[in-house]
C-alpha cells in the first residue's frame, strides 16, 4: 500500500505501508542500531517520535516475549528500508508487521532510509507525517508544520504510571501504601525509583544489586519519599523536553539535600536542572547502540546505548564534576556532585538494546549507597 512521508521542510519520500492504511505524525529521528528493534519499539522514551532504522533489513528475527522494555509499543511509526515478513528465530512468537498491527502502529518500508538519515543529519530532527490516505505532498507538509515541536512538550504524562508499583522480576505489580508508608519486603537499601517512562531492564539491574525497590509516578513528592521510608532515589529515562517538568525538578532539588540520588537519561537531565544547570536540544540527537563515551574517572572508553534529543549544560554550576563525555561531539554524558551523594549519566547503562560496557553504573550506585547508608 502506497504511503508518503513528508517532513515539515518540504522533504517528501514515497514508500509502502506494511501495516495497512493510516496516518500518523511526530518528530522524525534515526536510530543506528543493527539489532534491538523490539527494545526500541517498546522504549517509552520514543513517545512522540517516528523512528527510522538505518540498518537496511529489519524484522528478520521476529518478535519475542522476552525482548520488551515496557508493556506496549511507544513509537508513533516505524520506518525501514525493508521489513522481513517471515522471521527465522526459535524464540519468535510473531512477525514485525503483525506485532505493529496488533499495537496500532504504522510501519512503512521501501523508503530511501539513507537519504532520510542524511537529510536529518544535515538539517536536524524535524516533524513529519506518514499517510496512506492523503496523496497531496503539500497538504502533508502543512500537517507536519502544524504538529507541536518536541521542544516544550511534556510527554512524560503519556507514559508514566498513575500509582506506585513493585517489580516482581518480570512485570510491574501494583502496591498500596498505608497512610503513605510502604511495607518494604526486602532487606536491601530502600530505593524509590521514579518512573518517567522507565525501561524494564533498569529495574532488572537495580534488583540484581540487591536493592529493595518501590517504583512511583512523577507526582510523588519529596515528602512522600520521606514518609514511605525510602533511603535513596533513582530517576529513570523518559520522553519529551525535560525543561517542562518544573514541579518534578523542584522536588528533585529537595531530594538531593535529603538522600543519595542517581539518574539515567531524562533523570540525568532533571538532576542537571535541579542542581542549577540547563538543557538544550541537540540537532538530531543520539539514538543507537554504538556511541563512544569516555569515563573521565577511570580513563576507560565504553561503547554505549543512547537515546536522547536533549543534553545537559552545567556551566558555572558549583560543586559538580563531569564524569563522562561523548567522544563524537563532546557533549556531557555524566556528572557527580562533589558534596552531595548524587551521580548520573546521559547514556543508557542498562543497554537493551546495546553493549553492556556501562553496566558498572548500577554497581557504582550500589557502592554509593553502601558508603552513605552503611549497608
Automatic annotation (TrEMBL):
Amino acids binding L-glutamine = 45, 238, 240, 266, 269, 307, 309-310
Full protein name: Carbamoyl phosphate synthase small chain
Q: Its function? A: Small subunit of the glutamine-dependent carbamoyl phosphate synthetase (CPSase). CPSase catalyzes the formation of carbamoyl phosphate from the ammonia moiety of glutamine, carbonate, and phosphate donated by ATP, constituting the first step of 2 biosynthetic pathways, one leading to arginine and/or urea and the other to pyrimidine nucleotides. The small subunit (glutamine amidotransferase) binds and cleaves glutamine to supply the large subunit with the substrate ammonia.
- Protein's pathway: Pyrimidine metabolism; UMP biosynthesis via de novo pathway; (S)-dihydroorotate from bicarbonate: step 1/3; Amino-acid biosynthesis; L-arginine biosynthesis; carbamoyl phosphate from bicarbonate: step 1/1
According to the record, the residues making up region (CPSase) are 1-189
Active site: residue positions: 265 (nucleophile), 348, 350
One family from Pfam that matches here is CPSase_sm_chain
The record, for PANTHER family, names:
CARBAMOYL-PHOSPHATE SYNTHASE SMALL CHAIN, MULTIFUNCTIONAL TRYPTOPHAN BIOSYNTHESIS PROTEIN-RELATED
CDD domains assigned: GATase1_CPSase
Q: Which UniProt keywords apply?
A: Amino-acid biosynthesis, Arginine biosynthesis, ATP-binding, Glutamine amidotransferase, Ligase, Nucleotide-binding, Pyrimidine biosynthesis
EC number(s) from the headed UniProt entry: 6.3.5.5
- Keyword rRNA-binding on entry: no
List the top taxonomic levels of the source.
Answer: Bacteria, Pseudomonadati, Thermodesulfobacteriota, Desulfovibrionia, Desulfovibrionales
The catalysed reaction is:
L-glutamine + H2O = L-glutamate + NH4(+); hydrogencarbonate + L-glutamine + 2 ATP + H2O = carbamoyl phosphate + L-glutamate + 2 ADP + phosphate + 2 H(+)
Q: Which GO terms describe its molecular function?
A: ATP binding; carbamoyl-phosphate synthase (glutamine-hydrolyzing) activity; glutaminase activity
What is stated as this protein's family in its record? Belongs to the CarA family.
Bilayer-spanning residue ranges: none
